[in-house]
Amino acid sequence: MLDKWTALKRHWTLVQYGSAVVAAWVALSLWTFSPVLHRHPFALFLAAVVVTARFFGVGPALLCCAVSTACLDFVVFLPRYGFGLNSRDDAERLAVFVALAVLVGSLTRQRTIAELKVERTLREMAAIVECSDDAIFSTRPDGIITSWNHGAERLYGYSAEEAVGSAVTLLAPPERYQEAERNRHLLNRGEAVESYPTERMRKDGARIPVLLTVSPLRNREGQIVGASAIARDITAQRRSEEAVRRSEKLATAGRLAASIAHEINNPLEAVLNLIYLARNDPRQADQYLSMAEEEVGRVAHLAQQALGFVRDTASPGGMDAARVMDEVLQLYSHKLDSKQIRVTRRYRGSAQIVGFAGEVRQLLTNLLVNALDAMDRNGALHVRIRATRRWSDGLEGVYITLADNGSGIPQQSLRRIFEPFYTTKKDAGTGLGLWVSRGIVEKHDGSIRVRSQVAGHHRGTAFSVFLPSESVLTRMAPVRSRGLSDVSSRSLIS
User: What is the CA radius of gyration of the chain?
Assistant: First the structure.
């Protein structure tokens, strides 16, 4: 079979032009032996030219046109079996036939080439979809899956036979059914659904983080006939981001070591002195030991505070933002005192928020450390906490503002400070502190703003963080952290 195909390709030109002659002969045969078609010779030969142009090209079509013209002159027109036209009308009819044959054959071939290009493009697109590592599938407007590529089979574990015909909610965890339905309704209304990280469920029940992109499918009239979805597994990306966050958290804990050592050193010296006094003055030993116990309690409290920065909690809980801020300021009191920084605190209203205590402490620590690094000796730090509503959606929460009179952030750097590995501290910073801080804020469905000036009377930087006071985390997606290459955020810079 392969040898025959090779031989056919080798003599393809001969096949093309031979087929043109055969097409003209078939048209002549039909005209000769069919009484019905005997009255329409031009239509028969024109059809022969169209078929030749369609399947064999323009050159064979011109040959077929020439052979058909000869057949019309030699056989059809009177006198038959001789070249020569009796009337001017026959000559005009033959000329019109030749012009129409050339024109129709050319147009037919152009359409054939266009259709072949479209077909080749569709095959290439289908191959791209089928060979993609991403899960790509389409659905009807009612949410029923209509196509399913190999990437979807690998990601979700369902074969094409199992997935096609099933509802798209088959892929969503139970608590995300509403999310899938909301996407479907938005697409049916013609609205766009931007790419977003979410969670989907495999056939075996395992949950996988994915980056989901959903787009409406429209027909030629612009009507929505379904939707296409692309899901990319971001498990490895999530693990790498979590590793970066943990390393930054450990780095934060390391920066606390000097402050904690200083804070612990004083009560430990007091304990040693009180034990010495108790040993040498047995009459007041109980009093001395009680005082030593209080100092040990202070050490234990400092240790618990330090553990809070690196210990994760399983679920969010309520906390007092003012109290957490005071604990962070206490841990850095030695550094604040050594630089003679004046701290002004202004707390107004209830400061209750809901979140992960360790992450909130890390957020406030990152902001405080940046302020300390930016200020010279005798600087001023203003800390304001107030209960309010977020103006964008009316959500109740707490605004925490840290404003310093340090060196400020240049305007060209201000829009990049939340990017990973971007730092204005040269060799002193990792460039991850504010990126991690932004991730923590977004995880708590909050927002962060920054204002800064590098000159003038109001020189310095002010960070304002909004954290909600109700448990929005329970209805959120898993941590909506940005990837290392994605620098877009809900952060506002002014």
Answer: 40
Where do the DSSP E strands lie in 140-206? 145-148, 193-201
What DSSP element (H or E) covers 303?
A: helix 285-308
For residue 463, give both structure tokens.
């960070």
Q: Does the pLDDT at position 270 exceed 80?
A: no
Best CATH choice for the domain 133-233 from the list 3.30.450.20, 3.40.50.880, 3.40.50.170, 1.10.10.10? 3.30.450.20
3-state secondary structure of 323: helix
- pLDDT for 480 beyond 50: no
> Quick count: other Cβ atoms within 10 Å of Cβ 204?
7
Give CA separation, 342 vs 97, 164, 302, 329, 379, in Å. Answer: 100, 67, 23, 12, 6
Residues of the chain with CATH 3.30.450.20: 133-233
Give pLDDT, residue 67: 86
Tell me the CATH architecture of domain 313-493.
2-Layer Sandwich (3.30)
d(CA 342, CA 403): 12
Which whole-number Å values give the CA distances from 128 to 53, 122, 160, in the listed order?
32, 10, 17
pLDDT at residue 344 in the model: 94
Predicted TM-score (pTM) of this structure: 0.46
Q: Comparing 166 with 414, which gets the higher pLDDT?
A: 166
Among residues of the chain, what percentage have pLDDT more than 70? 82
- Other beta carbons within 10 Å of 113: 12
Q: Which helix (H) or strand (E) holds 145?
A: strand 145-148
Q: Is the pLDDT of residue 60 over 80?
A: yes
The H or E element containing residue 383 is strand 380-389
Instruction: Using the predicted structure, report yes or no on whether residue 393 has a pLDDT greater than 80.
Output: no
CB-based contact 89:101 (threshold 8 Å): no
Considering the chain, tell me which residue range(s) the CATH 3.30.565.10 domain(s) occupy.
313-493
216 cis-preceded (ω within 30 degrees of 0): no
CA dist 280 and 272 (Å) reads 13
